[in-house]
Amino acid sequence: MHEDPDRLRYPVERTANGWKEISWPDALDKVAKGIQTVQKQYGQNALGIYLGNPNVHNMGGMLTIKHLLSSLKTRSRFSATSVDQLPHHIVSMHLFGHMLRIPVPDVNRTQYMLIIGGNPLASNGSIMTAPNMRQKLKDIKARNGKVVVIDPRRTETADIASEHHFIRPATDVLLLLAMLNEIYLQGYAKKAQINNRAVALAPEIERLADFAKDYSAESVADITGITAIEIKRLVKEFCEAQSSVCYGRMGVSVQEFGLLSQYLIMVIDIVTGRLDEIGGLMFPNPALDVVNNSGPGYLGKRHSRVSKLPDFNGDYPVVAMSDEMLVAGEGQLKGFISVAGNPVLSTPNGEKLDKAFAQLDFMVAIDYFVNETSRHANIVLPPVSPLERDHYDVTFNNFAVHNVAKYSKALFNKNKNDKHDWQIYLELAKRLDKKVSVATKVERLLTKTLGPKFLLDQGLRRGPYAGMTLKKLKKNPHGLDLGPLKTMLPEALKYKDKQIHLNIDFYQADLVRVQAMMQDYDDSQILLIGRRHVRSNNSWLHNSYRLVKGKPRCTLMLHPETAAQYGIEDGQDVKVTSRVGSVVIAAEVTDELMPGVVSIPHGFGHGRKGVKQKIAQAHAGVSVNDLTDDTLIDQLSGNAAVNGVPVQLEAIELEDINLEAADLDISDLDTTNSDAEPSSAA
Ligand SMILES: Nc1nc2c(c(=O)[nH]1)N[C@H]1C(S)=C(S)[C@@H](COP(=O)(O)OP(=O)(O)OC[C@H]3O[C@@H](n4cnc5c(=O)[nH]c(N)nc54)[C@H](O)[C@@H]3O)O[C@H]1N2
Ligand SMILES: Nc1nc2c(c(=O)[nH]1)N[C@H]1C(S)=C(S)[C@@H](COP(=O)(O)OP(=O)(O)OC[C@H]3O[C@@H](n4cnc5c(=O)[nH]c(N)nc54)[C@H](O)[C@@H]3O)O[C@H]1N2
Ligand SMILES: [Mo]
Predict the structure, then answer these.
(1) Cβ neighbours of residue 9 under 8 Å, at least 6 residues apart?
(2) Phi–psi pair at 107, nearest 5 degrees
(3) What is the torsional sign of CA 639, 643, 649, 652?
């Protein structure tokens, strides 16, 4: 990325004659003016902001984004959280009193790891920070432990696991309910209650005995695809293992029962005595204590204007975003700023969002590239490359499976005029925020002069490790080992009463939806799920030839039986249609997939007009989020449901293609951008 000639080195402005480079002062002034014009004419909340995933991987960004947010004074905030880990935050907020107090698998010491809807061999483990997941999982087996994977696809992780079970997408909630029920039926909950602190701290725990009583293993077997005998055995082995942990990620979080499923995973770990125990689910203790430096979070203080979905900690669900732009009325979004995000490719119904961005009065993107989202911006502000900034992992040490602290200095010096993300935020805040408190003014001035590392140093000094400073980290360039995870209860709880609040009523109410799902279950429906690959990262690493070369990876995986049912052959083009759209994509027939399930990776679809990433354009693929549906959500949390999307399949006959091709002008086949060329290096 550092060397990528398509990476923007200067701000660019969209003009009638294509993109033009402009100077930083000019760009920042114009951006501030554009924002002010929108807000003056339509109100503060007519400006929307979306924060994408790389924000949380950016030290300066994390430590200073609050200045940008407060200066924009808009409530119309969105982020990638609601196509991702939102359920984890809500569960932790409810149970432990803080949205970031999220326990992680003690993968280094567990004897039994149950992975539901996660593929750490592709993702390297999510909400489970550690190097070399492959080795860690192999080590579990080497010490006579077990790794069990529940996934509609036999993934790379499943391949090295001790055991894999296919599950019908978005039915995990049934499996988890049946498991909870079995834990009580087999008497394991009682055993845990005798010796576990976490259990003792959860006063309502007795009520959980009834939570899942209507869900026998037999009653969920057909829909989930996992037999009652297997479910019972899973429970027995999980509970009898010397230590064990149940862990769920994207596959359970980002589907129709994401929040209830994550709650059940947590509850299973609690009632079996696995929370806060060695080899179970444990709380990290990072040197920079993000929990004590942020608010606990809240759910549903406000609701989105059009779709009436609850906010979480000031963010509306991302599925609400396009309607907020497209539906006229008081509060309609007219301006937008996208920071390190590519929601056109990464959020449900990307096509609709694409149209919504296109009709805005004013848009800004803070990004390296003119991509599917930023091409709609009036101005793109590019930060320095990842190798030109210092790094301390503000966010992900909070999810680390071993406590560590490490500071890395930038590899290259940036050019004098180039700007860090945090510098862009401060420059915009200065222009937008005329009246600020003296304290804020001082903090901004100090940050501007000393850089965000000064905030890091302050945070480290206030943190849980005596003597921890930035200077100390700099003296230890390979990092400091702060030891294995330790038991943290009850101190980790942010509730004054130092108890776990199970919030049973809130979650029990969602069982109505589960009942409805079971009653009308249609097992003939083809369901779409996603997939990640180790050589891709969401939408933004496809412009590197070394990462995209080889066999195309944006394919429709499906089982031979499913393929036969629709007359689809390996390599053949298939039209996949959902409620919101359709794409044409080559089939990859493989028994990795459960019959009745198809899989398309996200982050592709670079063939859109106006994208300026040549290699990505040449390996364009299609966007799975042109199929995912902005109305298919987890209603309890507002999280998107990109897994388990009903689709129809249709094999495209070769003759159809030939006929169509005969009608086409050759220029229509050129997927590269036909816009006027920019005036300069952009
Ligand atoms: N169907 C489906 N959709 C999904 C998912 C899925 O599994 N299936 N996964 C979801 C998940 S988990 C996530 S996190 C989201 C991600 O959603 P997004 O965050 O919206 O998408 P990214 O593709 O990560 O886009 C990141 C953008 O930030 C830019 N960028 C990279 N680094 C920096 C930086 O340091 N500073 C700035 N300013 N810009 C930077 C990149 O050029 C890129 O344009 O996608 C979600 N969408
Ligand atoms: N190489 C690489 N690494 C990444 C990323 C990347 O794009 N590429 N993205 C990063 C980000 S932003 C994140 S959030 C993490 C995500 O990290 P993970 O959650 O580990 O990543 P996924 O590969 O999306 O794993 C989800 C799994 O759930 C399965 N699944 C789908 N639907 C269901 C279902 O209904 N039930 C069950 N049980 N399983 C289901 C899928 O088949 C898949 O194997 O990865 C991070 N790391
Ligand atoms: Mo993510």
Answers:
(1) 382, 418, 681
(2) -65, -25
(3) positive
CATH 3.40.50.740 for the 12-82+297-399+402-465 domain, yes or no: yes
> Which atom in ligand 1 lies closest to the alpha carbon of residue 53?
19
From 4, 53, 422, 628, the mutation candidate for ligand 1 (largest count of ligand atoms within 8 A of CB) is 53
Would you give the DSSP letter of residue 320? G
The CATH number corresponding to 524-651 among 1.10.1790.10, 3.30.470.20, 3.30.360.10, 2.40.40.20 equals 2.40.40.20
Q: Whose CA is nearest to atom 47 of ligand 1?
A: 346
Give the ligand at the shortest distance from the Cα of 601.
Answer: 1
> Which ligand 2 atom minimizes the distance to the CA of 85?
14
How far apart are alpha carbons 172 and 193 in whole angstroms?
A: 26
Output the CA–CA distances (angstroms, integers) from residue 540 to 75, 79, 373, 389, 543, in the order listed: 28, 17, 11, 19, 7
Q: Which residues line ligand 2 (CB under 6 A)?
A: 53, 84, 116-120, 122-124, 126, 150-153, 155, 167, 169-170, 172, 249-252, 255, 529-532, 534, 536-538, 643-644
Amino acid code (one letter) for 81: T
Q: Tell me, in angstroms, the distance from the centre of ligand 1 to residue 540's CA.
A: 7
Q: For residue range 463-485, list pLDDT tens digits in order.
A: 999 999 999 999 999 999 999 99
pLDDT tens for residues 547-585?
999 999 999 999 999 999 999 999 999 999 999 999 999
Looking at all shown ligands, the one closest to residue 54's CA atom is 1
DSSP states along 149-164: EE-SB--HHHHHSSEE
Nearest to 37 by CA among 335, 415, 382, 392: 335
Q: How far is the CA of 346 from the centre of ligand 2 (A)?
A: 13
* Whole-number Å distance between alpha carbons of 90 and 165: 28
Q: Whose CA is nearest to atom 33 of ligand 2?
A: 251
Mean per-residue pLDDT, 586-591: 98
Mutation probe of ligand 2 site: the residue of 159, 250, 529 with most atoms within 8 A of C-beta: 250
Report pLDDT digits (tens) over 258-273: 999 999 999 999 999 9
Strand positions, DSSP E, 305-395: 310-312, 315-316, 335-339, 362-366, 379-381, 391-392
Boundaries of every domain in the chain: 12-82+297-399+402-465, 106-284+490-508, 524-651
In angstroms, the first-to-last Cα distance of the chain is: 15
Verify whether ligand 1 is closer than 6 Å to residue 499 (CB atom).
Answer: no
Measured from the CB, is residue 353 less than 6 Å from ligand 1?
no
3-state secondary structure 71-99: HHCCCCEEEHHHHCCHHHHHHHHHHHCCC
pLDDT at 230: 98
pLDDT in tens, 496-505: 999 999 999 9
Are 508 and 180 in contact, with CB atoms under 8 Å apart? no
Six-digit token string for 193:
């209650």
- Tokens representing residue 602 in the block: 């996200």
Under CATH, which architecture does the 106-284+490-508 domain have? 3-Layer(aba) Sandwich (3.40)
| Dist. CA 539 → ligand 1 center (Å) | 6
What atom in ligand 1 is closest to the CA of residue 424?
Answer: 38
**Helical H segments across 496-651, by residue range:** 504-508, 511-519, 545-548, 560-565, 614-618
Ligand 2 site-directed mutation target among 83, 123, 234, 593, most atoms within 8 Å of CB: 123
Q: Whose CA is nearest to atom 44 of ligand 2?
A: 119
pLDDT-based confidence at residue 60 (cuts at 50, 70, 90): very high
Q: 0.85 cut: is pTM over it?
A: yes
Q: Which ligand is nearest to the CA of 539?
A: 1
